[in-house]
Amino acid sequence: MILNKKNVNLFKELIISERPLNIVVDRIEEDKFIDVEGNQYMDLTSGYGVVNIGWKNKQLLETIHQQTNKMAFSPPWLATNEAIDLANTLISISPNSLKKCCKTLSGTDANETIFKAINCYTEKKGVISYNYSYHGGLHFALSLSDSLRYKFPKHATSKDIHLVDPPYCYRCKYNKTPDTCNLECMHSILQLLETRNDISSICIEPILGSAGVIIPPVAYYEQLKEICNQYNIFMVVDEVLTGFGRIGKMTACALYNINPAAISYGKGISSGYIAISAALLNAKLSDALSNYEDVSSSLSWSPLACKVAKANIDIIIKNNLCTNAAIMGFYFLENLKELFIKYCYENIGEVRGIGLLIGVEIVKTKLCKEEHPLLVKKFIITALKKGLFVCASWDFSTIIFMPVLSITRKEINHSLKIIEEVLITITRNRVSY
Ligand SMILES: Cc1ncc(COP(=O)(O)O)c(C=O)c1O
Known about the structure:
Elements: H1 2-14, E1 25-29, E2 32-35, E3 40-43, H2 46-49, H3 58-70, H4 81-93, E4 100-104, H5 107-121, E5 126-130, H6 139-144, H7 147-150, E6 161-164, H8 187-195, E7 199-204, H9 218-231, E8 234-238, H10 252-256, E9 262-265, E10 277-281, H11 283-290, H12 303-318, H13 321-344, E11 348-354, E12 357-362, H14 373-385, E13 388-389, E14 391-392, E15 398-401, H15 409-427
Parallel strand pairs: 3-13, 5-6, 5-7, 7-8, 8-9
Antiparallel strand pairs: 1-2, 2-3, 4-10, 9-10, 11-12, 12-15, 14-15
Helix pairs in contact: 3-12, 4-12, 5-11, 13-15, 14-15
The structure holds pyridoxal-5'-phosphate (PLP).
């Protein structure tokens, strides 16, 4: 641990970063991370929902090589065929309502750009967003996120943001079950729209990932769509984590049949091989934004980034990775349920998932439902010691599994063996957690 420890300390001294673990990774070999001391790690996070097509995809590496030789960068005011190809592809896989793309660089950037466009369209400044949600680490995107619960830095724009509870059925505030639910959690949205006239939009994380994989019921979005129409507000869908096959469909909008006013894409758009993202807008918003100069980043949508993103999406489609995510996700979910029930029944709040986005919510007891971050951290650290990367929700209430979408049954079985060892280790000799 000498090299790892020394370099992690150096890293922390020089770079502000989120919760670095005590290892320094050096390279990937045969889909495994190798750290500076030569230890191997299998990754069940795909780099926090980024590397959808898998590591070191040969076709993508070849595309990078060829496009770098052809033209890596061009000035932002020049058109390229690579950008046209990518825009066409993005529009073709997105809901019909979306007509134009904005060139952006990260998920945060895409969300910021959408609200820039909304500000160009209307004087109304109010936005509804969800408690528990995460939309990015910069000014407006951070205001849209649940910064109180997750201790994000303070920001200035929050007075216009109205956070409401998402449909978090496991922790339903109205003590309803799916049988008795009348979508009571929609009331806070309705109340805001009835009492204020400054609300322009609602920003949703369609399945809340960083909060611990909260999956709203279909009926919820059916009603939300009606409400958005009735009150004439823009529905903005943040697909940064859910997009490009993660949930077994190309988008959460396809899953819930949503035709939003805007979508933000990031992460899986290029599987992390290069930094790029996109915001797609409907005609009203793109017209409004087009009245002004384009002030996107000089670095966004370089020909190299566009080519990589387009090739990445082609690979997702050609290799049926959405279907693989749906099938493997179901298999993984069922087996995880079995294992967790076998080894820590009393601590399982809920095991839930869709495609390869799976959360295991851990509680002190089934009855009290109190969160148990200590046990979640113990699971993650023990998994790390056994050569497995697993991540958690922001508040460590839920263990999150989101492997690459190309994962095979054999690889899942291998992961399950290590997970079983982790569960045996953390539950051995315990009196009570
Ligand atoms: C739903 C969602 N939106 C936005 C972001 C921010 O994306 P980025 O880290 O690329 O800025 C994230 C990142 O985790 C996310 O999960």
